[in-house]
Amino acid sequence: MRKIFFLALIPFIVHADAHIFVFHRFGDPHHTSTNTSIATLRSEFEFLKTNGYEVVSLIRVHQALLRQEEISDKWVVFTIDDSYKSFYDNALELFKEYAYPFTLFVYIEATDKKYGDFMTWEQIREAGQYGEIALHSYGHPHMVSLTTQEIKTDTDKAIASFEKQMGYTPEYYAYPYGEYNSEVREAIESYGFRLIVNQNSGAVSTASDSNDLDRIALTGENLLKEKLRIKHLPTEWITLQKWPDNSVLKTIHAKIPSEITSAEYFISGYGWKRIEVMNGEVEEEIDLPLIQTRTRLFLRDGRRQSSLILVKE
Ligand SMILES: [Zn+2]
């Protein structure tokens, strides 16, 4: 009896959470807001190595979610968006030196049309020997401004080019700019990708949705230690993931684990506010005009957090 009691408690005690990070440019000081210097990258790699972290591939996380295996607190996943040349020129060697896997999300049009700042297909295929190659749309559009048909046209074009150049079908998708709403999500989900990643700054646990995995941006200064402290707050958002009518957000509404009695929420431009939790439900009438065209909502209980992005269409 005692054994059963302990097993029942495990989901509430163990908050084992992996972290998926997203990078853009490396060693490219012309673009400070999306750049990670090679010195910073090396110090992050060294920190992970000396502190017992295991850098795993996205497929490993997918398998664990599928089989409902334990997700290790020590797992770190690296993803790189946009396939900028600076990844190939400056960072790939370091990933090889540490034998750290990665997933590269390719902005297909930039490579197809040979935009100067981006990797060539040949370089992408070479990078594919050390990491996974995946899809980051064809034209890198602001998805929320497109119709479902336009989203499908972009995605069909991206998949066709990827298949032609790589010889296989892409299995993961990352939203351009991390922007999506429920309609964009539905359109992308219809392709049956194994994983879809966002950029919502959260961790990954067994309760995570493989069609909506959070990633944490790791550009700029060395923030790794702080970001590794973020935990996953399993949340069912009832507030719709859609820009509200007249840009006024009427309510904050979500379901979170029932043992939580008090949480905090955040809205871009307004900061944090404490909120009571009744039987695992957070609900407050707010009637706030949204100030930023990319508004983030966060819900937090200590280090556990969940978030939603609302983008003006
Ligand atoms: Zn991008």
What does this protein structure show overall?
There is one protein chain. This protein is of the alpha/beta class and 313 residues long. The chain is 29% helix and 27% strand. It folds into two domains: 15-230, TIM Barrel; 236-311, Sandwich (Immunoglobulin-like), CATH 2.60.40. The strands form five sheets. Strands 1, 4, 5, 6, 7 and 10 form a six-stranded parallel sheet that branches. Helix 2 (38-50) packs parallel to helix 4 (85-98) and helix 7 runs parallel beside helix 8.
Label this structure with key terms.
313 residues, alpha/beta, TIM Barrel, Immunoglobulin-like, six-stranded parallel β-sheet, five-stranded mixed β-sheet, 9 helices, 27% strand, disordered N terminus
Radius of gyration: 20 Å
Instruction: Please indicate the count of domains.
Output: 2
Estimate the global geometry from the Cα principal axes. Answer: globular
Number of strands: 18
Query: What percentage of amino acids are in beta strands?
Result: 25-35%
* Main β sheet profile: 6 strands, parallel
Which structural class should the secondary elements be placed in?
alpha/beta
Helical content stands at 25-40%
Sequence stretches where pLDDT stays below 50 over 5 or more residues = 1-13
Say what oligomer this is.
single chain
What is the annotated CATH architecture of the largest domain? Alpha-Beta Barrel
CATH class of the largest domain: Alpha Beta
Within CATH, the superfamily of the largest domain carries the name Glycoside hydrolase/deacetylase
Helix count? 9
